[in-house]
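Re: the request from the purification team.
They wanted to know what the chain is likely to look like in 3D before they choose a buffer screen. I agreed to run a prediction and write the result into the notebook, where they can find it.
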Amino acid sequence: MRVLVVEDEQLLADAVATGLRREAMAVDVVYDGAAALERIGVNDYDVVVLDRDLPLVHGDDVCRKVVELGMPTRVLMLTASGDVSDRVEGLEIGADDYLPKPFAFSELTARVRALGRRTSVPLPPVLERAGIKLDPNRREVFRDGREVQLAPKEFAVLEVLMRSEGAVVSAEQLLEKAWDENTDPFTNVVRVTVMTLRRKLGEPPVIVTVPGSGYRI
């Protein structure tokens, strides 16, 4: 899942991004509304965590732009105000969910995951294919009943492949979904991660390399 965090309190923004990355999400961070519009115009995000009171371009206008473009991106709006009228106004603008500050990080994570599930074709809560069971909420993976311990990026790559339901996923698509914009697209990070993932999942191999196209399970 790829997430954009838009928050002008830089310490909070960076802390949220770090926490979501630990949950195997690819996260980009910006600190004002103008930068948010720029990123949204370039990258495809599953969820935007959007502070309402932003400099340069207000969060309401960023949200309106997402709606205007007809994007599948879901918006979780944040605000320091917990008034019901503010929550209603944010939802009427086009936000998909609303979370007042201060918030528990566990709740933020749960809401981001819930919104992320709504950006794609509905799938069972536990993904199963080729003897692999992957639970995105518990961050657990089993191969033929054996638990497999994965690093966050390995988990993210496996989740993308599992969600593709047998379709080929290119290295570029894996970069888009599992890494943030600071990753050099010309590195071999995808290949190395897939190799490590194959080793951890064990024999027989379940991740197939399709020459010139990508990978599939």
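For the purification team: Residues 2-117 form a domain with the Rossmann fold fold (CATH 3.40.50.2300).
Please add any questions underneath this entry.
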